[in-house]
Amino acid sequence: MSDYAHPEVLVTTDWVKENLGKPGIALIEVDVDTKAYDAGHVPGAVGFNWETQLNDSVKRDIISKDDFQSLLRESGVQNDDTVILYGDNNNWFAAFAYWIFKIYGHDDVRLMNGGRQKWLDEDDKDLTVDAPSVSPSNYTVSGGRDDLRALLPDVLAASKDGSHNLVDVRSPDEFTGKVIAPPGMSETAQRGGHVPGARNVPWATAVAEDGTFKSRDELEAIYTKGQNLDRGKPTIAYCRIGERSSHTWFVLTYLLGYDNVRNYDGSWTEYGNLIAAPIEKG
Amino acid sequence: MPRHDVRVYDDIFEMMPSEENPTPLVRVRNSLPDESEYRLYAKLEWLNPLGSVKDRAAWQMVQDLEARGEIGNGRGIVEPTSGNTGFSMAALASARGHHMKAVVPNKVPAEKKILLKMAGAELDVVNDELCPAPGLGDGSINLAKTHAKAQRDRYVMPNQYENVQNMEAHVRTTGPEIWRQTEGKITHFFTSLGTCGTVSGTSKYLKSKNPDIRVIAVQPSEGHDVPGVRNVSQLEVTKLFDPDLIDEILEIDFELAYVRAVELLQKDGLRAGPSSGLIFEGARQILQREGQGAGVGVMIFCDDVFKYTSNLVKHLPELGQGLEP
Prior knowledge:
By secondary structure, chain A is of the alpha/beta class.
């Protein structure tokens, strides 16, 4: 992992095992399958529900600053903790949570490389159904990074003037408009296709067979050389609801060291519902 | 001692199939194109005590877990299952005083889920429709593994996909039964692929007796919805698949599985389920291709059609017509 631009943002499953229960480390599981945590989690890990705890329950938005602060207080996370995030589906929602932690200015956040699956597959790693013992903290959100998030006007402008790398991380069938969403997904759009000017780099191309991230060389070959992403330009990544693109945002920002990468969490479920917005198909 | 001659037993376990108490072989005649020298037999696995070929593997695995002290004293079973193994295992485990949790993909027909509950299993239903991703494996296998790992004092996972006892069951029972029932004259063995316990175990035994016996695995075309069987492309989940024990893998248009299942009931009186229909169509195609000279074929008819009526209506819509006054 050492040749990544910011290798300190990843920890191995072995590192997590060695550091279980140590003070100053907050383990947090965030899954696509919101039942997975209850079935079994890494000992001491707190579980966040992406639907009800990381998103606003009324308007469509990420959790507010105040709610984030309350969530971390209830979860016993301290401002100077090293937060380790992991989850199912190659850390989709763990990466989404990572992005939110950074938006609200938490300093030391890391992903467990390989996620829940790698931990499950390793015989020397334990799971538990026991709830962690949590002492509420005085967590305070002080700073914040609005510049990690792209909103619709940013995307419309970027599409029009070609000033950005626009990266659509969905499957090729979603990108071309053959399907509007993967089978079984309830959040969808009125139209299929992609934002004009976007390149299709499915998120999973960043992941090796064992579920960990590919090497820096492989990632450079995919994004920088293969897709000709221009390191001199800012980048906006999007998907369907913003979780898969958080994964790519993480790869571009921390593993490849791109400057100025933003996640458009409105993604296709916002863009594909707009009246009169330009759409490319095929 | 079980009294197989009069079929009087002390308990269900004495009824389990063995060389002395085999499931029947019945010759299939009417659905074949012509009369021929070739004798094609169906092995009626639905006449096992709990209604499917899976009784063999389930019983072998439960016995093995008991013998090794892995279950008992409050520790039961968790297993990913698409139905038949779970049903056999749940009923056998319950009858032995063990509890069981079955992790079931959502697409499994309701009839099978209800049967699992009736047999005493606690259900955990998994949505398998998530976007495919590298190295994630099968959702129900992962969840069962999670339960086994997170609650080691409550569950052990037999894991039919990796447990050699699944294969061993067929080395000990299915193979010897067929050898004895055909008086060593079997030339072709037809079955399907799922966990591959049946094909690997039976083939291992039969080929040890006569290496010239041809073993044909019949698989449905990709995109199929024939419950309980797999296309080779779906076999990464099992460790019991051994290509050296299979002479040919024959792919069949899966729609024919349903057509043949109904044909077997209407022409032969055999209440064959869709996977049996699939295997029968495979045998027909081999016979058409290779002629019908002297030979003895045995087909595994895994289970009967009763659990699949709604599934059949989907593929043979005329079955669903005229049901109202």
